[in-house]
Amino acid sequence: MIERKTYLFPDEMQPEGSMTMFMRKEVEYLITPFAESQLHLSDALIPPDRDDETLLATLRQLDARIDEGDDYGDWEADFFTMQERCCQRYHHWLLAKGVPETLSQQFSFCLEPYLTFLYQYDAGNVQEVLPDAIEEFFMDWLMRKVMVKPPEYTQWPPALRLFYRFLSEKGYLDDPEPIIAGLQAIEPAFIAMVKQRS
Fold it and tell me: How much is the pTM?
């Protein structure tokens, strides 16, 4: 037990005069970019149904309130309604596109923190997200605010790229390609950072 304690809590890692001890990591993770080949997405377009139209109306109403300069407290409840609907409709779309249930659930989970970051941290909205905001989300905010196993972070870039395809297919975005390109551009640096920190 004493040898094990010495191994897990090496003296060179311990800060002087602190009540907290640092423990050696014993788990190593293989961090690789998400293999999108496992998705097998259908090319068939899925036009918006009544539930999608409700989501789009909620999104547009929220955008209008923010553009008018309404305080966050005035539209907070609308944001949570939109966030919940958005995650549900995105999950439904992924399943309809042929994405397996497990991945559909994980990808729709990825969406919730992203929407929180955009709307609650004043980083824009889904339609007008700046490259700087995407960089801040991936290179700083996500790993500080969301705790998952290191390999699971690699799901965020493809999940958000598909989310923008979803918004385009449903008629909310005319051209998702600039945002998708921004998500592709940040992915290598993000994966490298996840590897470094795990």
Answer: 0.82
